[in-house]
């Protein structure tokens, strides 16, 4: 059971209050975040991912602040941003294994997990192809696979 709690979370960019005192509790399950362009969705997600430091409040994972958890939090987290970086000359397999190693997965476990995830997103047959030969949708699916490397 995982509990993610946003406590009075806020982000200010100069005079612009992008996220204003958000209190939310997430437990296991699927959540969606809806809002108009500029409503603050990306800013909120970046704070949840500990990429952006809140101006106010904090994010707690099972009761502990994520800034303090640092690497322990990152080892649980998966994130697929709108735009994500990849090396076009890497094969899908190499890309997944590379990210698995950045996430410190042991090699045997990484191989198993990459195979499983590439199968899940329907790219196992294309695993040895370079990403530059992929369509936009295939690249997106590869992004989903990497976001699922952790639990
Ligand atoms: N780095 C930044 N500097 C200044 N203002 C920003 C920055 N990032 C976002 N904003 C502003 O904060 C508000 C929320 O943006 P954002 O979180 O990207 O919204 P959404 O993802 O919901 O479209 C917008 O008004 C946007 O212009
Ligand atoms: Mg956005």
Main sheet specs: 4 strands, antiparallel
What are the segments in which pLDDT stays under 50 over at least 5 consecutive residues? none
Secondary structure tally: strands: 4
Average pLDDT, rounded to a whole number, is 95
**Category from helices, strands and their pairing:** alpha+beta
**Head-to-tail CA distance between termini:** 11 Å
Beta-strand residue percentage: 15-25%
Helix segment count?
Answer: 6
Ligand identities:
adenosine-5'-diphosphate, magnesium ion
Shape: globular
Strand order of the largest sheet: 2-1-3-4
**Helix content percent band:** 25-40%
Radius of gyration: 17 Å
> What are the secondary-structure elements, in order, as H or E?
EEHEEHHHHH
Indicate how many domains the architecture comprises. Answer: 2
Describe this structure in words.
- This protein is an alpha+beta fold and 151 residues long.
- It folds into 2 domains: 71 residues, no CATH class; 56 residues.
- Helix content is 35%, strand content 19%.
- The chain is built from 6 helices and 4 strands, in the order ββαββααααα.
- A 4-stranded antiparallel sheet has the order 2-1-3-4.
- Helix 4 packs across helix 5.
- The chain is globular.
- The site of magnesium ion (MG) has 2 residues, from helix 1.
């Amino acid at each position: 059971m995982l509990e993610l709690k946003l406590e009075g979370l806020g982000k200010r960019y100069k005079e612009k209050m992008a996220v204003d005192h958000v209190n939310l509790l997430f437990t296991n399950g699927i959540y969606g975040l809806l809002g108009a362009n500029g409503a603050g969705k990306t800013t909120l997600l970046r704070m949840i991912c500990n990429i952006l430091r809140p101006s106010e409040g904090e994010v707690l994972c099972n009761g502990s602040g994520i800034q303090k958890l640092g690497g322990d939090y990152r080892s649980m987290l998966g994130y697929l941003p709108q735009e994500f970086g990849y090396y076009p000359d890497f094969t899908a397999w190499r890309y997944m294994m590379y990210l698995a190693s950045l996430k410190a997965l042991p090699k045997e476990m990484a191989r198993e997990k990459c195979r499983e995830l590439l199968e899940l997103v329907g790219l196992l047959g294309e695993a040895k192809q370079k990403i530059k030969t992929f369509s936009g949708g295939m690249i997106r699916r590869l992004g989903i696979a990497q976001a699922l490397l952790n639990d």
